[in-house]
Q: What sequence folds into this?
């Protein structure tokens, strides 16, 4: 009896096998980043809609929040945008000037690391958020996998801000970007994506649409943390 001949990869149904020399077939919803050059480098042409995206940088305030603004501005009125443990207090006037509805922002300030991971998972799994943004310095693989499963199950984009040292650690995130500050721009190196490796660095111009009294940031110094409750949105 003759053994069955193997099926050539080219003859398999689209999306069944991912070839490393091409983008993976994306079935989940993606969100345009608002930057054509970045969209062209991402499978599906945008931020993954139900997965972890890691943004790696050691310095806050370099444009890592502004990078997400076009996507955040698309939040449906019934959805939240959750901020978990940001290093600085988000600057409400600048966020409003950038086009975000403050009534849709919820700020979560966990008292300890274990609560941070738990809160991130709950916000993601709830299905009530348009996006979840969390600043996590240390996290193990088991916790990352739980967060990835929560993002997949709820079809919620989860953005994890992590230090550059995390680039040497394995992660289930489907997208990992290294961010570097540049003059009036932000540099982006794609460390991981559902597609071929990329050696190209993107240079995306930053849009300066902030009030004159705080022209370069979307956040205020940590000394302003007593005003934390000002961004705890409530609905009647």
A:
């Amino acid at each position: 009896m003759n053994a069955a001949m193997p099926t050539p990869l080219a003859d398999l149904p689209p999306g069944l096998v991912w070839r490393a020399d091409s983008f993976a077939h994306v079935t989940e919803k993606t969100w345009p980043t608002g930057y054509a050059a970045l969209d062209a480098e991402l499978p599906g042409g945008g931020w993954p809609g139900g997965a972890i995206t890691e943004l790696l940088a050691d310095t806050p305030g370099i444009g890592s929040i502004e990078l997400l603004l076009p996507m955040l501005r698309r939040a449906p009125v019934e959805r939240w945008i959750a901020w978990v443990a940001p290093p600085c207090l988000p600057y409400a006037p600048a966020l409003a000037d950038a086009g975000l509805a403050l009534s849709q922002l919820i700020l979560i300030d966990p008292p300890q690391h274990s609560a941070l991971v738990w809160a991130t998972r709950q916000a993601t799994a709830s299905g009530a958020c348009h996006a979840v943004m969390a600043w996590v310095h240390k996290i193990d693989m088991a916790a990352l996998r739980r967060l990835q499963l929560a993002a997949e199950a709820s079809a919620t984009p989860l953005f994890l801000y992590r230090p550059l040292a995390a680039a040497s650690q394995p992660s289930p995130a489907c997208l990992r970007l290294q961010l570097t500050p540049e003059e009036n721009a932000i540099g982006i190196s794609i460390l991981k994506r559902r597609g071929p490796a990329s050696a190209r660095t993107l240079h995306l111009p930053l849009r300066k649409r902030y009030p004159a009294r705080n022209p370069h940031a979307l956040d205020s110094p940590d000394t302003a943390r007593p005003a934390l409750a000002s961004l705890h949105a409530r609905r009647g």
